[in-house]
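can u do me a favor
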């Protein structure tokens, strides 16, 4: 049935993972499992407090709740498969399951790019135009902004996933990666992938270049506005409202640039090390970054810490 649907003789893929490094498999199984549990706990708590605490019913925390939910979805689309591959001798995945994972991971990544841009605009209005903030960032504005982030990310992912699964895969079904990563799957196609490459290039411009430029310009205005505040205490308070978002942006885009922008080594002696790094760097992007997001926002935000304390106190009191 899959053969008919996908017009391909390949009915499934073999995930190579870290098969060449069995000792590392055990170590990374424990590390990634622990980080995944932290992701579920940290982002789950952030979602709960932004829903239950009325003081956090603002645009900034609404976007933060969306970011936390997105991080849970993104990691859940790949981490269980990665953990299973560390324990299973033959690491196989069906064609349809691979397609679903490609769609989810690409959709969540694209959505986060847009969402971080929306959050930057929210901080720009809050700091540079505070008197107009309630009007500009009303519920009628920030809810459609978040919905459009999800809609754009999912739509683009549908396009890229569809273009990929329509390609013919003639026998070579070994994915040299930890999961069904779109670029790794494209390498297995036995036909010209120029359309896929061009569409990926266009997508990178719109989902990496444009949001980064928008965020950069927003923070230029924010920094200029903060520097004009006469008191040091006022400048500190203004900066604290956007420092968490800025930190998350630097980690998110910094990892992406390093992951896709680092030069390839031509030294055959270093090929194995580079192959290993090419697999582990996306783990940092896909697991470590979502784990750090709730930590950054909770440690640098008094409102979130107070809401978490109230949630814990209410839970203890009811028991």
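np, heres the sequence
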């Amino acid at each position: 049935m899959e053969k008919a649907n996908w017009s391909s003789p390949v009915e499934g893929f073999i995930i190579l993972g870290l098969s060449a490094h069995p000792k590392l498999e055990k170590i990374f199984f424990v590390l990634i499992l622990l980080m995944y549990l932290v992701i579920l706990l940290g982002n789950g708590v952030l979602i709960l407090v932004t829903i239950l605490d009325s003081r956090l019913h603002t645009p900034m925390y609404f976007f933060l709740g969306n970011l936390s939910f997105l991080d849970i979805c993104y990691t859940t689309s790949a981490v269980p498969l990665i953990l299973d591959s560390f324990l299973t001798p033959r690491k196989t995945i069906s064609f349809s399951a691979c397609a679903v994972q490609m769609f989810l991971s690409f959709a969540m990544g694209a959505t986060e790019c847009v969402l971080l841009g929306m959050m930057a605009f929210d901080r720009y209005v809050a700091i540079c135009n505070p008197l107009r903030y309630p009007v500009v960032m009303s519920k009628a504005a920030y809810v459609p902004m978040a919905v459009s982030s999800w809609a754009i990310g999912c739509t683009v992912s549908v396009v890229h996933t569809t273009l990929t699964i329509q390609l013919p895969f003639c026998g070579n079904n070994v994915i040299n990666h930890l999961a069904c990563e779109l670029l790794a799957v494209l390498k297995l196609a036995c036909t010209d992938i120029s359309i896929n490459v061009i569409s990926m290039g266009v997508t990178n411009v719109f989902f990496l270049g444009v949001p980064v430029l928008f965020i950069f310009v927003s923070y230029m205005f924010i920094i200029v506005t903060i520097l004009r505040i006469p008191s040091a205490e006022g400048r500190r308070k203004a900066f604290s409202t956007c420092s968490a978002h800025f930190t998350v942006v630097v980690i998110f885009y910094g990892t992406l640039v390093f992951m896709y922008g680092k030069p390839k080594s031509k030294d055959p002696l270093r090929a194995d090390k580079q192959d290993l790094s090419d697999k582990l760097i996306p783990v940092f992007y896909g697991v470590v970054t979502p784990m750090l997001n709730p930590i950054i926002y909770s440690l640098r935000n008094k409102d979130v810490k107070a809401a978490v304390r109230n949630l814990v106190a209410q839970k203890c009191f009811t028991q």
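The two ends are 53 Å apart (CA to CA). hope that helps!!
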